[in-house]
TrEMBL record:
It comes from Herbidospora solisilvae. It comes from the Bacteria. Residues 393-403 have a biased composition (Basic and acidic residues). This is VWFA domain-containing protein. CDD domains: vWFA (cd00198).
Amino acid sequence: MTSYRYGEYQDGPDPLAPPYDVRGALDEMGDAILSGSTPLDALRDLLKRGLPNAPDRRGLEELLRQVRKRRRDLRQNTRLDGILEQARELLDRALDQERTELFPDPSDDARFRETQLDNLPGDTARAVQELSEYDWRSPQARRSFEELRDLLRREVLDSQFKGMRDALANPDPAAMERVRQMMAALNEMLDRDARGEHTQQDFDDFMRDYGDMFPENPRNLEELVDQLARRAAAAQRMLASMTPQQRAELASLMDQTLQDSGLADQMRRLGDSLYTRRPDLAWNSAERVSGESPMSMGDSVSALQELADLNYLESSLRQDYPGARLSDVDEEAIRRALGRSAVDDLQALKQIERELEQQGYLRRNRGKLELTPKAVRRLGETALRRVFNSLESTRRGDHDQHDAGAAGELTGSTRPWRFGDEQPIDVVRTVINGVRRGGGSPVTLSVDDFEVAETERRSAAAVCLLVDLSYSMALRGTWAAAKQTALALQALVASKFPQDSVQIIGFSNYARVLQPDELAGLEWDMVQGTNLHHALLIAGRHLDRHPDFEPVVLVVTDGEPTAHLMRDGTPQFEWPPSRETLELTLAEVDKMTRRRATLNVFMLAADERLRAFVDEVARRNGGRVFAPNVDKLGEYVVSDFLRARRRS
């Protein structure tokens, strides 16, 4: 018998896992977008704040704050001349020990040696160079000087190869010879790569022989070059950050140490190769540091290397350059600077950005981030949900008319299918008819077997929402509310009244029909004119195309008409409004009245001219005038629409 074992899926992501829910993130972006932000700016603001409903996850702003704090701490606790101080102390100790040995000796040789010591240059590097051939009389002095040379050798190599200091803690000729062999092999591998002859096997062989000298465990030559170049650049920045005297002294000590170790030529070749491969690094820029405790040369280079990482992280985390994306942020640099938890926070933010595109809410069109129709529908549903949450339960209501028809709730009755029916097929009744007719197996169906489920019919409406796009809407802070209202009404009609035909019309100097997909990213018009005349003309055509539908016309504006459409199709602007503009606009109001269309006006300003105009509209048409607070506009419009639909 075959047996099966079930367990957790191990081969990558769970294929049955639900998709990542980014709807909350989109809703938060929607608030900013509807207030006038672009989708790109809204996404950046969201990523800066962090994940919605996830207080344990840090956003870019918090990560950036921690990066800046770490950089500030490093600068305040880094002192670069520690190696010079250590070298001077060891040199002075050796000289004192040698003088102590020479003092009791009355010979001329002793006095000559004292003269040599007294005439040494004040510069540590030059003094060490002159003493390199000196025959020490004091064994203690000889040991101190050798300790100085060992220190320089370890620190100079550690400044170029992280971890080399520990490897050379107890140097011997064999250890130094192995370092020279490693350098030669490394330069040869880089030369082969430059000629296009390098293979991964070459790198693996190199790491097998010398991998213990590279504690960061690079996986390939590219990673090794990156590690070495970043450290070499930090060493150069360390020199650039010193005073001219310190720089000259330390550079001389480094050159002398490399010459004595037989590594000068190989180190020069390596430096040239690294600079050629990574010229983008800041090789000679100075850092301002102000620490009090001296640091070793290797630790100073590590500090400057970390500072370079932090500078790069600050730039990438700000995301304020053209084409910025979270994929630009180096996760390894985040881990080095802030730890593993920061990497998890960054990955969560990247998942938002990635999923918004993969799940079809955002798309990039010629480098520009745009909302998709799916996202616009979501924003409309969210706006509508907020409106309904604000409405009192008594203000909600149905508007159904019980009569067998084409849409609405099921009545429980069925009837034979007729060509053109849109009602749902009653599958059970259809199959039973086929069985009864055929009486055999398999069951075959004919057209006569199909039955449809009857539904309640809802009366259809032709809905026109006229939204003011003039610049004053932005100045008065009513623009976002108007867009939210339009989206909410669009979502309401699409979800609850699919038989209705809705048209949203924006007007400034001209009027135009607004498609649902463009509502969210719509901006106000920087032009003069409030051409309600043109908007009513377009709305009238929409109503005329649906003569059997109940007409519903809603107007959202913050100003009286100041423009009208001339016979040649151009707009005529005049302020204060001309008599012709008012007469032509009111003539279209009268036409709406003859169409039995009631105009309800939502007035977003308390201007006397506007009040006088809308009162005249109400007198001629019989519609109502509302003066809602901006944050209640959506509730007023949706409630008024539902009230009109219940009456139909």
